[in-house]
Design a protein that fits this description.
five-stranded parallel beta sheet, globular, EC 2.6.1.16, aminotransferase, repeat, glutamine amidotransferase, binds 5-amino-5-deoxy-1-O-phosphono-D-mannitol, 16% strand, alpha/beta
Amino acid sequence: EKAGFEHFMMKEIHEQPKVVQDTLNSVLKDGRIDLAEVGLAEDEIKDISQIYIVACGSAYHVGMAAQYVIEDMARIPVRVELASEFRYRNPILDPHALAIVISQSGETADSLAALRLCKDHGIRTLAIVNVVGSSIAREADNVFYTLAGPEISVATTKAYSTQMMASYVLAIQFALVREQITEEQYTGYIKELQTLPEKIQRIIDDKERIQWFASKQANAHDTFFVGRGIDYAISMEGSLKMKEVSYIHSEAYAAGELKHGTISLIEDGTLVIGVLTQPDLYEKTVSNMVECKSRGAYLMGMTTFGNYNIEDTADFTVYIPKTDPYFATSLAVIPLQLLGYYVSVAKGLDVDKPRNLAKSVTVE
Ligand code: M6R
C-alpha cells in the first residue's frame, strides 16, 4: 500500500506532480478555467466585497500564501484567520463577503464551526476540501474539491499542494472576471500553472541533496525559517513540517521582524533557513540572513536558479526552478517537506504518525 516507499509521507510527496495536475485539469475546459462545477457564477464573483479565508494548521498556511496572490492579482481584500480564533471572537462579518474554508479532511471541528458561523450570518461559503462528502463539503454553499486522493500521513504534503493549486485557480478567475488582468496575462498564468507538475517532479528527483543536508541536522535544537511576503507563508509551512515530524523546535518569522526580538535567539550554529523566491524582496531577505550569519547562524538559502550570489551568504543552497513569483509556494514547499521527512528518518522517528498528533482534529 506504500507503493514501495518506506513511509506514506514519502509516497505522498511523490504523488504531488500527478495530483496537482489532476486538480488543475478538473477545472479546465478548452484551456480556460471553468468554475461551473464549483458553482461560482461571474456575477457572484463580481459582487464579492472581501474574502475571509478560515482554516487550521497547514490549510491556514495555504490561506496565508493565497492571500498574497488573491489580493495582488485580483485586488480583493483578503483576511486569513485561524478557525479556532475566528469562531470565538464575534467577528464583524460583511454580508457581501465570501468565506473560503480550507480543509483536507473536511472534518476539522474549528473549521466546521467557523463555516457555520459564516452561514449563520448569511455569508456565502466556499469550501476547498479533499474528502468527498465530509461535513464541511456537505455544509458549504460551494465546494472546490482537491483531487489529492486519500492522505494517510499525519503531516500533509499532497493535500497542501492541491489546495495551493485551487487557490491559484480562484485568484486567476477572480482577477479576470473583475478585469484586473488582461486576457494575455490570464492565458499566461494558466500556461504557467501547467508547468508546475513537471517542475515539482524535478525537485523531487533531486531529493538526495536534501537528504544529505538533513542527515547533518538531526541534532539541531532550534530552526528558524525566514522570508518576506509569499516567502513568509512558505516559511510557516516549512517550519510546521519540521516540528511536526522531526520534533525539532522551529519557528517561522517574517524576515523583517527578526531584529524586533527573535535575533537574540541566534547562537553559534543555529540553523536559519532563508526562503527567497520573490525577486522584489530578495535583497531585503539576504540582508536579514547576513545579520543572522554575523551572530553565528548556519544558513540554508533557498532561491530560484540564477540567483547564484546567494552562495556568498548561505552555507548550503537549494535552487528551485523558475516560475511566476505568484506560484513559487508550490515549488519551494517541496524541499521543505523533504527536509522535515529526512530529519525525521535520520532521527529514527515515527514519520507517518508523530507523537501526540491525529490526522484529523475533530475535537475543539
Ligand atoms: O483536515 P484539515 O486540513 O482541516 O486539517 C488541518 C490541520 O489539522 C492540518 O493541516 C495539520 O496542521 C497537518 N498535520 C499539518 O501537516
